[in-house]
Amino acid sequence: MILNSTLDLDELLQQITATATELLDCEASSILLYDEKNPRLYFAAATGSDPQELAKIPVPIENSLAGTIFRTNKPMILNNVEKDPRHYSLVSDQIKLKTKSLLGVPMLIKDRAMGVLEAVNKRDGEFTERDVAILSVTAAHAAIAIDNARLFRQTQQALEKVMETNSIKSNFLSLASHELRTPLGIIIGYATFLQEDSKDETSDHAQQVLTAASQMRSLLDQMNNLTLLQTDEMEMKPHKISIQDVLNFAADEIMYFAARRDLEITYAFGDDPIYVNVDQEKTTLAFVNLLNNAIRFSPEGSQIVIGAIEQGNDVTAWV
Predict the structure, then answer these.
(1) Planar angle of CA 133, 138, 140, nearest 5 degrees
(2) How far apart are CA 294 and CA 229, in angstroms?
(3) What are residue 265's DSSP bridge partners?
(4) What is the distance between the alpha carbons of residues 281 and 228, in angstroms, rounded to a whole number?
(5) Residue 207 class from Cβ within 10 Å (0-12 exposed, 13-18 middle, 19+ buried)?
(6) pLDDT tens digits, one per residue of 132-168
(7) What is the pLDDT of residue 55?
(8) CB 46 within 8 A of CB 29
(9) What SS3 class is residue 87?
(10) Which is more confident, 8 or 131?
(11) How far apart are CA 287 and CA 279, in angstroms?
(12) Which ranges of 108-260 would DSSP assign to H, the alpha helix?
């Protein structure tokens, strides 16, 4: 009996009903599961029937055969169903199958009923205690398999929700980093100009603006790095640009921090442009990170060299 070969819940339910029908040599079988939100049973699967149509038929816990099996946690054999007042004829009408005999057993998980497995209309004779034993074993295996499939589905749904949340967060971080970088650059530029050309209190205020804006830019760099690290598929948008421009863009980003530590930025490349085909934003960010490390670990008053050289088809750039 292979009921754990799939974790797809719908496929598993169909496997269980097909297995029960074959083992008991009956016309049909069905699975009813308990709906905790609306205390009732519902058809989750049935051989030869549309499960979506059957699912629309609520089966009450009280005054129904399946409900009695569910409540008592005991198997039931009825070889003359139509005479039992608990027979829920609405189901027979829906599936267009006259129910003459029925065998039902509870599906238990840790002594708690999760549903009912039913077999309908024994083909040769009546349902027996041997059939009860066979269907009970089938129901026990089925309950474990269904519980595992449910847990798998819940895990998948939770993972999808986490991934969706991460995607929203990453998009926000990327947008915030991109949209705030340009105005911050303008603020830092004007604040630097004010600090250099002003004295006394105005210069002090400009210094405060520079410090705050520089901290914000550093935070944006960290946000951007985090976004790139968390993105499974980093989209590259390469285009032709001179490596000198990329290095100059990166140097402009860190110039204020270098000046605060009295570090001199020098350039080791010629005037003739060296063209490369790269993603400008991401390549610039990579060099900004390298330069930030150089600023952090270089002695005050020292020199940081930025260079590039073309060797055949290769271009080497360094900090």
Answers:
(1) 95
(2) 21
(3) 304
(4) 12
(5) middle
(6) 999 999 998 888 888 888 888 888 888 888 877 777 7
(7) 67
(8) yes
(9) coil
(10) 131
(11) 12
(12) 129-197, 200-230, 243-260
Tokens 């609520």 sit on residue: 58
Distance between CA 94 and CA 107 in Å, rounded? 24
Give CA–CA dist 316/56, Å, rounded. 68
- Considering just the CA atoms, what is the radius of gyration of the chain in Å? 36
Task: List Cα–Cα distances, 256 to 13, 26, 250, 251, in angstroms.
Answer: 66, 83, 12, 9
CA nearest to 148, candidates 177, 96, 192, 109: 109
Fold of 9-159: Beta-Lactamase (3.30.450)
| Both structure tokens of 239 | 């285009």
Domains in the chain: boundaries: 9-159, 236-319
Q: How confident is the model at residue 2 (pLDDT cuts 50, 70, 90)?
A: very low
Residue 53 is which amino acid?
Answer: E
pTM: 0.52
User: Per the structure block, which two tokens stand in for 58?
Assistant: 């609520």
Q: Domain 236-319: which CATH class?
A: alpha beta
Amino acid at 40: R
For residue 123, give both structure tokens. Answer: 């083909």
